[in-house]
Amino acid sequence: MKIGRKVTADELQQPGLEAAQGVEVIAPGRVAFSSDSLAGGYAAALCLRSATRVLQIIHEEDLNPDRAAGDTVYEATRAGAPWQQLLQPGQTLGVHCMHFYGNSNITNSQLVARRVRDAVCDAVRDARGVRPAPPDGAPDLPLVFQMLDDRLQLFRDLGGGSLHRRGYRSGVVLADPMCGSGTLLIEAALIATGAAPGLLRSRWPFEDWHDHDSQVRAEWRAVRQAAQQRAEQGWADWEARGGQLLGNDLHEALRKLWGGGAFDSANQTALEGPITVPSSRIDATLLAERQMGH
Fold first, then answer.
1. Measured between alpha carbons, how far is 35 from 45 in angstroms, rounded to an integer?
2. DSSP 8-state secondary structure symbol assigned to residue 274
3. DSSP assignment of 62-92, as one string?
4. 186: Cβ–Cβ under 8 A, 6 or more apart, which residues?
5. pLDDT confidence of 163, banded at 50, 70, 90?
6. Are 172 and 200 in contact (CB under 8 A)?
7. How far apart are CA 28 and CA 8, in angstroms?
8. Structural Rg of the chain based on CA atoms
């Protein structure tokens, strides 16, 4: 698994992420760790706050710069993994470039993406008789590649995209006196209560992967249940301490995003459902006074 920043390396020592082993900062913005089970990667995708992606490496290979660029990418990709297993019947494929620089004869990341996609689709077609269909929305197998100094690396993306998309936009809304859409207070609430930032996500692509077998499914359920229990206890503690999150914004269009008025999130939990916005309005002055204890 490869993820980002020294902050993330510290996070990997926290409760819920005990399966992460050999945590090491290997480059600016990148941290590597190993795990005895895929569930260790699942836990990282679920619980990490600072990482933008959690990736499982599938294949890496140094390419010959004296050969045609597209051919070397295609051959390395096609032989690099059992694609007919990684991409099950009816599943779709997505290919995304993460980093691309320092290559001798490959100057276009779009060429690499196309040849990676061709190699995977051709391998599946030869094994199964039909090419995978293009994705209609989020792909079932999100692949990420990077090409650095003529070295190709292929990864599975456990989150299927950037992990900053927490999932709370679907119904949970908090704010502050100049809140915009409330992102800072939502993140503050999750941190204050110890809620894993991925608990609200509705989809994890790895749940449909071929190696998400009964044992891994059981481990994944245990990871989620443990994170859920920590979050519920955190919310209970927060409520017992009288925790509050108050919000408003002078911009009318932004106020409409969260029900037309400012609100107080005391005794609400992001994990129990959408926060209901009271009909009364609280202006920014009153919010400031309340926050200062007046």
1. 13
2. P
3. E--TTS-HHHHHHHHHHHHS-HHHHS-TT--
4. 166, 168, 172, 173, 174, 270
5. confident
6. yes
7. 12
8. 22
Q: How far apart are CA 230 and CA 224, in angstroms?
A: 10
Provide the whole-model pTM.
0.59
Token pair recorded at residue 9: 């390396």
Contact predicate 55/219, CB 8 Å: no
Give the distance between the most distant pair of CA atoms in the chain: 73
**Sequence-ordered list of residues with C-beta below 8 angstroms from that of 284, at least 6 positions apart, any chain:** 177, 178, 248, 249, 250, 262
Tell me: the pLDDT tens digits for 224-278? 888 888 888 877 776 776 666 666 667 777 666 655 443 344 333 332 333 333 3
Counting other chains too, the contacts that 261-270 makes at CB distance below 8 Å and 24 or more residues apart are 262/175, 262/287, 263/175, 265/174, 265/185, 265/189, 266/239, 266/242, 267/239, 269/232, 269/235, 269/239, 270/168, 270/172, 270/186, 270/189, 270/190, 270/195, 270/200, 270/235
Residue of 124, 70, 69, 60 lying closest to 93 (CA atoms): 124
- Residue 143's identity, in one-letter code, is L
Determine how β-strand 93-101 pairs with β-strand 141-148.
Answer: parallel
Residue 245's Cα: distance from chain center in Å? 25
Helix axes of 183-193 and 214-240: crossing angle, nearest 10 degrees = 100
Residue 186, pLDDT > 80, answer: no
